[in-house]
């Protein structure tokens, strides 16, 4: 047999090569035999024909009880392996599909020789040209490693992607799975010998299908052969159809002369596998090898296969189409509104002519709401009926910049590729690549220019350019409770998840130890004197609430499309106002509005574990309207009566995470200035919102003044709530929710704040800092021994409060940090213990730094860890700018900077902006780098003009601006009391004139240490005092705009690295410390 792949081909073999069907006068490029109409098989030599029967190796019988010969069975397969151009494949596909009219399962394999480099070519020059929705696309030689794959998104529309990186410079495998298919990953294997990926696909009819893709490296053949044998043996025992594709780097044309190739074929036969590709997949001037293939283990299948010749890489692509009506995929069917014949004028006319008052004049609140909703829903269905659609991929979407002319040119380029005219082909190919890049650049420049003020469209374009798309996980398997295995039944998965979400709260509540104190002990003896009264709702309020509803959000059951609701608002607002007022007067909340549809969102780790899914609840749009009306009135009552704990910063007006961080930071800095040790304990509550006890919450509402019929209304609102979990088109059974505040609701966060409002009463020694369920405790002491004793005693008191309120502590996620002066080192370990749910003392983990509300705080307040953390984030954003700068206008790049980079710098900057210059300079360097990229400037060019030209502030000036803005909030009473109290008016301290005693100036405190010297309270006062009085008096927006203008002016006249903490805007002078 001729050894086509031998590099040392002897002269005799060379002469024989010329007579092979894979050579021509050119020696040899197979493409020379192709033309645009190629759709027929090429003649083959006898030794290649033998591949149909796997070399006539009679080493086993598929059925020992039968006289059927396995080779004859394989010969009867009538393997349709042919060579195709993309154009001829389309003709073949149409003929086959039209003739057979059956569902099919299809596979495509490509060795791309770097997915990062060839992803766009794969889409545009191959998949778009083939125009076929393959079920699975296997990719080999992705050349993606664990490090290079971090910033690369290999997304292809309508496919999900799984991959196995390579530990070497070559190799790596990936698999694109059609989005219409459910699948689970069976195995990922990677070493220096091979990379392998196996998945299992789920079908409505017939057995599930196992697909694998393998790339074998050019080393350790024995290691690969062992894995190959063991894996085929294990998977074959499942009795499921198996399809294995890949670049095995084993030339099947050498099977009679190469033992390794021969053994590979023996292994295939032993496990009933046969190849569907019998023609060379990689052809050079002096060699042709069959190293890429698709292997199947079913001999009863009707299939078509072949090689697709393209210029994606030096390997041809292989495909296999299995024609089987049993392989019907689980396409997701959904219902959508049909607006093709919708007339807003006709809809409003019908709505206006309806007797809404008559529908809602009699009966209970539930009956009235049902009558209202049923009539409205009937009208909605009349004008915008529901229609059922299947989310099938009809066609590969081409890139928008690939114009008609370029598409035609690509076809001509492909024809030249098959013609054998290599010189002309290369010239034409290079020209097309140049034109494609130019077309892409012009398209996006036009796109971003036309959508300059449309941020949604802008980000759609940016995400398309950087190939950023949300990766959705399809739930194909889930663990059953009580260790009963797993299930793949979609209905059962939905029911298991729904039960888990509905019962996780009660289970935690039941695990809480016996109570030693009652929750009422912490509320005090007397209730709040003022009571909450509900002001009647007006139709005008209803209309305003309807107009404020976001149109791009999803809502739950018993809803109305927001578009139609806004059209009908004037006609139905009076009825909705009467329904809300009736609900309040009777103390009954409509039952239909208490049913939530839950969507599970995968978080991390094991995909089959229900604990790794987060429930996202969708409630009725009418529920949103009713809750917003109650929320506004209840929040106003709470604010008027100062009910909330002053250090609770979550979900409150004029409060943010920034204020919470500043509050605790100021206390720590004061303690360090006094040479005290500060112990910060960061508490994590387990499923806090889900474990709220309804009876305790109602009692606390009564305590704070929400009494009488309003308390009954909240009781009705919380009771008999139901939920169902939806996965695709499958909806679970209903489950009753017996505890917790409604997830996804407007009132839920506010009710939780009321529930934990008395937590600070558990300890008189801790300073409490709260942001919803994020809890921080602080205690300072001069002696570490005493600090340990006191903190442990107070933690036991906190546990008593948690138990009495049926809240659970997540000990594994709770930890503490010791903040200390730089001169005072920790001379001993601090051992803090806390009670877990089993009433056992468990040690808390001590950390050198902790992440609190998105900011990394370390024991020395050096901010080194936080700056390193955000530097990594910023670098990734700069990488995106570097990739896009040739394609988009500079205005878009500036938008990217302000959206992807600046938020990381500005978040919490008022707290950490006083870090040492050695740390801050890391950010400055990155800012300079991104500006030089945007302006195509040299690495050594001066950056100050770039900052001034772009309107971007260096970090020190940005710090100045943010601190000044916060001081403006304090000046205008728009900041929390705890933050405002950090500053004292100069006239309140000195009775005599000073340089800062002008109206509106703050007293600059004396400082003993650097921590206090650069604290927010001191630096903020100096910054505010340096701002001209006429600028301070402006409103917030003009103030920030004018301040930015002045800072940029300073940038033009002063050094950009000046310490902005001591700059005087009124004269551009620098203060000395």
Q: In a few lines, what is going on in this structure?
A:
With 1073 residues, the chain is of the alpha+beta class. 40% of the residues lie in helices and 16% in strands. β7 and β8 (209-216) form a beta hairpin.
Biggest sheet strand order reads 1-14-15-2-3-5-4
Distinct helical segment count: 35
Helix content: 40-55%
Radius of gyration from the alpha-carbon trace, in angstroms: 35 Å
Mean pLDDT: 82
Low-confidence spans: pLDDT under 50, at least 5 residues?
Answer: 1-78, 328-332, 390-397, 1066-1073
What coarse outline follows from CA principal-axis ratios? Answer: globular
Report the structural category: alpha+beta
Our measurement of the CA-to-CA distance between the termini, rounded to an integer number of angstroms, reads: 90 Å
Biggest sheet descriptor: 7 strands, mixed
The tally of beta strands, per DSSP, is 37
**What portion of the residues fall into strands of 2 or more residues?**
15-25%
Detailed description of the structure:
- With 1073 residues, the chain is an alpha+beta fold.
- It has 35 helices and 37 strands.
- The strands form 11 sheets. The chain has a 7-stranded mixed sheet with strand order 1-14-15-2-3-5-4. The protein has a 6-stranded mixed sheet with strand order 6-7-8-9-13-10, with helices on one face. Strands 20, 21, 24, 25 and 26 form a 5-stranded mixed sheet that branches.
- Helix 20 crosses helix 22 and helix 24 runs parallel beside helix 27 (917-934).
């Amino acid at each position: 047999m001729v050894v086509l792949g031998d590099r040392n081909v002897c002269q005799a073999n060379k002469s024989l090569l010329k007579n092979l069907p894979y050579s021509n006068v050119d020696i040899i490029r197979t493409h020379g035999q192709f033309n645009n109409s190629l759709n027929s098989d090429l003649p083959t030599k006898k030794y290649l024909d033998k591949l149909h029967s796997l070399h006539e190796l009679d080493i086993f019988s598929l059925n020992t009880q039968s006289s059927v010969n396995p080779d004859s069975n394989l010969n009867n397969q009538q393997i349709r392996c042919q060579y195709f151009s993309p154009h001829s494949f389309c003709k073949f596909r149409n003929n086959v599909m039209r003739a057979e009219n059956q569902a099919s399962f299809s596979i495509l394999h490509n060795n791309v020789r770097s997915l990062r480099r060839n992803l766009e070519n794969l889409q545009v020059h191959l998949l778009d040209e083939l125009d076929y929705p393959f079920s699975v696309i296997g990719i080999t030689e992705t050349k993606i490693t664990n490090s290079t794959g971090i910033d690369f998104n290999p997304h292809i529309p309508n496919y999900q992607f799984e991959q196995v990186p390579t530990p070497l410079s070559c190799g790596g495998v990936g698999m694109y799975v059609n989005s219409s298919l459910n699948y689970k990953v069976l195995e990922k294997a990677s070493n220096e010998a091979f990379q392998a990926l196996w998945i299992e696909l789920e079908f409505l009819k017939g057995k599930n299908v196992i697909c694998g893709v393998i790339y074998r490296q050019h080393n350790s053949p024995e290691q690969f052969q062992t894995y190959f044998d063991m894996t085929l043996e294990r998977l074959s025992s499942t009795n499921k159809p198996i399809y294995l594709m890949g670049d095995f780097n084993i030339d099947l044309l050498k099977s009679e002369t190469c033992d390794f190739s021969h053994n590979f074929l023996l292994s295939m036969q032993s496990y009933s596998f046969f190849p569907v590709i019998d023609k060379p997949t990689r052809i050079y001037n002096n060699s042709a090898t069959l190293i890429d293939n698709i292997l199947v283990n079913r001999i009863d299948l009707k299939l078509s296969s072949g090689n697709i010749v393209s210029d994606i890489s030096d390997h041809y692509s292989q495909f296999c189409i299995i024609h089987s009506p049993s392989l019907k995929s689980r396409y997701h069917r959904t219902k959508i509104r049909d607006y093709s014949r919708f007339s807003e004028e006709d809809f409003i006319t019908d709505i206006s002519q309806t007797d809404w008052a008559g529908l809602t004049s009699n009966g209970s609140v539930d009956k009235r709401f049902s009558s209202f909703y049923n009539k409205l829903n009937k009208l909605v269905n009349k004008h915008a009926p529901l229609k059922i659609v299947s989310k099938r991929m009809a066609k590969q979407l081409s890139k928008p910049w690939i114009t008609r002319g370029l598409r035609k040119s690509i076809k001509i380029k492909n024809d030249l590729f098959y013609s054998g005219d290599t010189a002309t082909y290369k010239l034409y190919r290079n020209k097309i690549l140049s034109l494609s890049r130019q077309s892409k650049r012009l398209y996006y420049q036009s796109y971003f220019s036309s959508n300059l003020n449309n941020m949604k469209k802008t980000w759609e374009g940016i995400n398309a350019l950087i190939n950023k798309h949300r990766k959705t996980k399809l739930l194909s398997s889930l663990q059953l409770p009580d260790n009963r295995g797993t299930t793949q039944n979609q209905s059962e998965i939905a029911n298991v998840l729904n039960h888990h979400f509905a019962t996780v709260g009660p289970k935690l509540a039941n695990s809480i130890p016996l109570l030693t104190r009652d929750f009422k002990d912490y509320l005090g003896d007397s209730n709040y004197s003022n009571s909450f009264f509900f002001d009647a709702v007006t139709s005008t309020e209803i209309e305003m609430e309807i107009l404020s509803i976001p149109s791009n959000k999803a809502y739950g059951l018993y809803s109305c499309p927001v578009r139609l609701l806004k059209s009908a608002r004037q006609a139905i607002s009076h009825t909705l106002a009467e329904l809300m007022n009736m609900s309040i007067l009777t103390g009954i909340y409509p039952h239909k509005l208490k049913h939530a549809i839950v969507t599970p969102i995968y978080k991390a780790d094991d995909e089959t574990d229900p604990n790794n899914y987060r429930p996202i609840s969708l409630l009725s749009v009418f529920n949103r309207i009713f809750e917003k009306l109650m929320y506004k009135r209840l929040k106003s009552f709470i604010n008027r009566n100062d009910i909330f704990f002053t250090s609770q910063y979550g979900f409150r007006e004029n409060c943010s995470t920034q204020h919470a961080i500043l509050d605790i930071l100021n206390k720590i800095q004061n303690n360090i200035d006094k040479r005290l040790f500060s112990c910060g304990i960061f508490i994590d509550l387990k499923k806090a919102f889900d474990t709220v006890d309804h009876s305790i919450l109602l009692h606390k509402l009564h305590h704070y003044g929400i009494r009488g019929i309003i308390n009954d209304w909240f009781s009705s609102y919380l009771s008999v709530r139901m939920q169902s979990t939806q996965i695709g088109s499958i909806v679970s059974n209903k489950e009753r929710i017996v505890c917790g505040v409604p997830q996804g609701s407007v009132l839920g966060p506010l009710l939780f704040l009321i529930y934990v409002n008395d937590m600070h009463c558990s300890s008189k020694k801790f300073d409490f800092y709260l942001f919803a369920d994020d809890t921080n405790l602080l205690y300072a002491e001069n002696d570490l021994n005493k600090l340990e004793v006191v903190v442990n005693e107070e933690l036991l008191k906190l546990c008593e409060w948690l138990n009495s309120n049926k809240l659970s502590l997540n000990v594994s996620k709770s930890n503490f940090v010791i903040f200390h002066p730089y001169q005072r080192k920790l001379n001993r370990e601090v051992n803090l213990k806390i009670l877990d749910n089993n009433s056992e003392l468990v040690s808390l983990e001590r950390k050198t730094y902790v992440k609190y509300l998105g900011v990394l705080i370390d024991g020395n307040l050096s901010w080194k860890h936080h700056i390193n953390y955000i530097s990594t984030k910023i670098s990734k954003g700069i990488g995106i700018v570097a990739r896009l700068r040739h394609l988009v206008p500079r205005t878009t790049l500036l938008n990217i900077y302000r959206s992807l980079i600046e938020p990381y710098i500005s978040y919490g900057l008022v707290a950490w902006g006083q870090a040492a210059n050695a740390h801050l300079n890391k950010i400055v360097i990155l800012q300079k780098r991104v500006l030089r990229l945007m302006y195509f400037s040299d690495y050594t060019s001066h950056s100050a003009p770039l900052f001034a030209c772009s309107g971007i502030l260096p970090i020190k000036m940005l710090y100045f601006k943010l601190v000044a803005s916060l001081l403006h909030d304090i000046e205008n009473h728009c900041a929390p009391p705890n933050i405002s109290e950090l500053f004292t008016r100069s006239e309140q301290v000195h009775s005599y004139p000073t340089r800062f005693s002008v109206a509106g100036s703050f007293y600059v405190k004396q400082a003993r240490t650097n921590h206090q010297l650069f604290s927010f309270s001191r630096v903020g006062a100096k910054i505010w005092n340096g701002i001209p009085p006429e600028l301070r008096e402006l409103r917030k927006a003009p103030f920030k705009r004018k301040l930015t203008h002045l800072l940029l002016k300073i940038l033009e006249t002063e050094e950009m690295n000046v310490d902005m903490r001591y700059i005087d805007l009124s004269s551009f002078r620098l203060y000395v410390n």
